[in-house]
Amino acid sequence: MKVIHFNRKKRLNSNYSIEGIYSSLRNTLNDKIKIATIECPFTSNGFFRRLYNCIYAAFKQEDINHVTGDVHYLNLFFKKKGSVLTIHDCGPLYRLKGIKHFILKLFWYTIPVSRAEYIVAV
Questions:
Q1: Residues forming beta bridges with residue 119, ordered by sequence position
Q2: What stretches of 15-117 adopt beta strand conformation (E)?
Q3: Which tens digits make up the pLDDT trace of 81-118?
Q4: Could you tell me the strand order of the sheet in which 118-121 lies?
Q5: Are 40 and 7 in contact (CB under 8 A)?
């Protein structure tokens, strides 16, 4: 069985605590399960960069595809079987209003959750 952890592309001077947690988990499970890591090629900015990240990730799928960082939208093109989504934070839903709230909720939560076989919530 092949497991892939999909991570967001790192930004300078930003906090990526969830990726650190999964890095520790991979190190702990290293002798039991082989887990590869794929980082998105683009930061999560703008429609086309996010779309390209989705397409890129769709072609990298394996038996288990686990979206670990704040790039839930990657799950849009994954097969549902073997798809795992970690939801670390719902805070952005409370900070945004109007169309931005609607788009965030739809593409970061509603659709990705419906496309995941398993959900991990912190």
A1: 85
A2: 35-39, 64-67, 83-87
A3: 999 999 988 888 888 899 999 999 999 999 999 999 99
A4: 35-39, 3-7, 64-67, 83-87, 118-121
A5: yes
**Three-state SS at 59:** coil
Fold of 3-121: Rossmann fold (3.40.50)
Closest CA to 24 of 42, 40, 11, 5: 5
Beta-strand (E) ranges in the chain? 3-7, 35-39, 64-67, 83-87, 118-121
pTM to 2 decimals?
0.86
Please choose, from the candidates 79, 67, 75, 59, the residue with its C-alpha nearest in 3D space to the C-alpha of residue 8: 67
Query: Kind and range of the H or E element at 120?
Result: strand 118-121
Where are the chain's structural domains? 3-121
